[in-house]
Amino acid sequence: MISHRFAPIVAALLALALIPTVIHSYRGLTIDDGLTVGSIPDVLAGMPSRPTGRKAPWVVANLASTDWLERTYRVGTGEVRLFAARSYDAKRLYHHPELAVLRGLGPESAGRAGLPGRPDVPIHVLTTARAGQRGVAVYTLLYGGKYIQSPILFQMRASAASLFSGRKPMTLFMASDLTGSIQQLERAPSVTLLGAAIQAFEAEAQGEDPARQIRPGV
Predict the structure, then answer these.
(1) What does the pLDDT average to over 155-171?
(2) Rounded to 5 degrees, what angle do the CA atoms 176, 180, 184 make?
(3) What's the rounded Cα separation, in Å, for the pair 76 and 200?
(4) Are 154 and 140 in contact (CB under 8 A)?
């Protein structure tokens, strides 16, 4: 039997332990920053676009996202595909999203780099291939106004922080082409398009509360 003098301490510890349960199991608390990938325009860097045939149920089932877009942008005689999505289930987006989004293109990791002109934006670089053509795919992740350098470190930090707060949306930006080369990454159409999409999304946050503005990556 626990001494009565320890009862207040035990009660306080039990109440503290219940906080994550109440937040996630009963309230399902999420923090909406008011941003949406729908702010990314149909024309980027002078490139017009059209929607792809990807269906909403697929995105919900694979990425737990209802705020998403996928468009094919025309650059010269080639095309660049842009996929962007936001999800409160961060793991769906940071755990090898290329396996779902780039299915059929045989994506293979080619390391990480800084976005040309934006060293604060880390990008994951991949090679792609289809019908004898080889190209480039790049993506980056944004969470809480910061670009993610390492998904593993992010997971460790976010898991602890989310125990006592609501979930924030993670944003995935991914672009792919079949004409670019990782040897000339800065000239790859997918890299150009990714940079333009990020700039358009960031513009939505400008002039808002400082907590919503984009900050250097972690």
Answers:
(1) 72
(2) 125
(3) 21
(4) no
